[in-house]
């Protein structure tokens, strides 16, 4: 059982944006159960913006490039040691998470018994038998339940400042309303990406049907996908008040703010999908190689529409299609 007298808790967060959003209910449950405890979150810098302004977290500790290798991990462990944490809860699954907290001398180290790290944990929790059939949010909540912390489901929510909302609203002022957000990328692999010409068709239909506009989002590595969509949109809808590409032009916090200002969002199964439901933007989520019951909009996804193929090979969880050259599940 977790020692509730602990007043200085470290949580090792996860490494991906979408996974980060799915840990938010667990962090809220921790705050509710431990109102007088300082909760510090150790996460990679590219994920930390997900947790900014979150009242359930007191401190964000970056786990950056300077902490690579044994020397870097030792340096990080010393930083953690000096903070005198009494317990560490490891939401991240890797051996590394247990190793660093062990090196830091944190007395109580709690996490799932997996990835060969059980001997480094003081409380080793069995991996739930339903981990491949229950939504990922419940994987994190179950860890807390198993150590005696009541962890009821709450809808993930991202906190934005009024200045962030107003900045995004101002940037979109020149676009016709309503605004459709498009996220055509997926870092995991091509098997999760719908085709650019299909996204272009959605843009054409939306602008024609509503008189509104579309914004295309993406990382710096996905600008070519965004450019291809823009080229396939019919010429009359490429006007500055109808079509805007922000691919490669936003920080993560800016992306969250822009998605919050969209009236509807169409996305592959990727990090921005989770950002959208966590800011309550209605969305259509396209699944092919992955399973929406595991990583889709949670608990029925109020305001969400899930699109998935009825094919025997889906979900396959592959990064690239192993059967065809054209991703049959995404056609």
TrEMBL record:
The keyword Glycosyltransferase applies. One of its GO terms (biological process) is lipopolysaccharide core region biosynthetic process. Belongs to the glycosyltransferase 9 family. Keywords: Glycosyltransferase, Transferase. It is an enzyme of class 2 (transferase). The gene is rfaF. It catalyses: an L-alpha-D-Hep-(1->5)-[alpha-Kdo-(2->4)]-alpha-Kdo-(2->6)-lipid A + ADP-L-glycero-beta-D-manno-heptose = an L-alpha-D-Hep-(1->3)-L-alpha-D-Hep-(1->5)-[alpha-Kdo-(2->4)]-alpha-Kdo-(2->6)-lipid A + ADP + H(+). Gene3D superfamilies: Glycogen Phosphorylase B. The lineage of its organism: unclassified sequences, metagenomes, ecological metagenomes. It comes from sediment metagenome. GO terms for molecular function: ADP-heptose-lipopolysaccharide heptosyltransferase activity. This is lipopolysaccharide heptosyltransferase II. Its EC number is 2.4.99.24. GO terms for cellular component: cytosol.
């Amino acid at each position: 059982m977790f020692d509730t007298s602990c007043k200085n808790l470290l949580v090792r967060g996860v490494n991906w944006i979408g996974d980060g959003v799915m840990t938010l209910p667990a962090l809220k449950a921790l705050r509710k159960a431990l109102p007088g405890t300082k909760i510090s979150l150790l996460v990679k810098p590219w994920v930390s913006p997900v947790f900014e302004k979150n009242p359930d977290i007191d401190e964000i500790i970056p786990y950056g490039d300077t902490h690579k290798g044994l020397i870097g991990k030792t340096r990080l462990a010393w930083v953690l040691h000096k903070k005198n944490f009494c317990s560490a809860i490891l939401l991240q699954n890797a051996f590394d998470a247990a190793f660093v907290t062990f090196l830091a001398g944190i007395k109580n180290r709690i996490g799932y018994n997996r990835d060969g790290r059980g001997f480094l944990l003081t409380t080793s929790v069995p991996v739930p038998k339903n981990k491949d059939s229950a939504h990922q949010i419940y994987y994190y909540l179950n860890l807390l339940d198993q150590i005696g912390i009541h962890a009821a489901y709450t809808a993930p929510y991202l906190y934005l400042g009024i200045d962030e909302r107003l900045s995004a609203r101002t940037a979109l002022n020149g676009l016709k309303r309503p605004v459709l957000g498009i996220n055509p990328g997926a870092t995991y692999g091509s098997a999760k990406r719908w085709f650019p010409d299909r996204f272009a068709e959605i843009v054409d239909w939306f602008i024609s049907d509503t008189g509104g506009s579309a914004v295309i989002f993406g990382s710096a590595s996905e600008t070519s996908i965004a450019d291809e969509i823009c080229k396939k949109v019919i010429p009359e809808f490429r006007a500055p008040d109808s079509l805007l590409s922000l691919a490669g032009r936003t920080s993560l916090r800016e992306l969250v703010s822009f998605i919050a200002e969209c009236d509807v969002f169409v996305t592959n199964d990727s990090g921005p999908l989770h950002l959208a439901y966590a800011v309550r933007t209605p969305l259509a989520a396209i699944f092919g190689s992955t399973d929406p019951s595991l990583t889709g909009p949670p608990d029925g996804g109020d305001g969400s529409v899930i699109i998935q193929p009825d094919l025997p090979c889906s979900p396959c969880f592959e990064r690239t299609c192993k059967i065809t050259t054209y991703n049959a599940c995404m056609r």
